[in-house]
Amino acid sequence: MDFNIIRIARTVINVKDLDRSRDFYVNALGFIETECDGEHIYLRGLEEHTHHSLILKESDKLGVHALGYKVEKEEDLDKLAAFFQSKGLKTKWLEEGSQHAVGRALHVHDISGMPLEFFCKMDGAERMIQRYEQYRGARIQRIDHVNCAVPDVEKSYNFFINELGFACSEYTATEDDRIWAAWLHRKQTVHDQAFMNGEGPRLHHIGFWLPDPLALIHCCDVLASLGYAENIERGPGRHGLSNAFFLYLRDPDGYRIELYNGDYLTSDPDFSPVRWDLDDPRRQTFWGHKAPESWFSDTSPFLDIETGEQLPVSNPTLQKIKPEFVL
User: Which parts of the sequence belong to the VOC domain (predicted)?
Assistant: First the structure.
């Protein structure tokens, strides 16, 4: 490929009540609100130098508009458009000025139907990493990754690795060595994009990087003190996969947010992906405790890049939708 995708850089989701969402994301989790125009809230983490990494768009209809990837050059957008069109996949241009704070952008549906966005330019914002008086809630630093349920993980894996230039850090395999889940990256950490076997395409979660594991614990206290204890779905704990500390939350509209810290460097070209057995109890939680049923069953819908309607989903090719927890 002759284009350069840098990293996952933003997501755009519909929410039903901006004030309710602001209370959760800004007051409880500690996102920086860059601005609000009455229909959108633009949020960023403390170390981010760009305008936003998460847009909350008020709508009666929930769904995810795009998973936004930053590219190196404007020319990369044209090359990506030609590539997706050559595969017969749907594309849509959004010219500069049609989206606030973002330059020209290409929206596409990938091989599984997920809505992806590619852009090069975004307006800047003050980097708040040493503005410690602004550290609140979970002390969110930056967007880290997205995880999506797709009906054929191996198909998505091959497309992202062979066609888009991603690399694999870790993966989960079944007894007959089929890929059940995979963690893929462009930046030099464990993942920008993860896939898991399930009805899809659907969004499983958006992951945000925290400064340290204590920020997860502090966030639990803040959430409980503000009446959000029931929004804690899973954790805190340590993943076997990625070795990272995690906390999974559900926002007021049901979107799953992961607070995440402590994975590792994946820059070396001879790095070998780590294989996990699906039923290894240390895989999902290194300490061995189970994920709740909702973690496997609940996901959020994607929206069509042209119509804005929820995308149809397909059943997974692998019948096993969750591990068998055996100690």
Answer: 7-121, 142-262
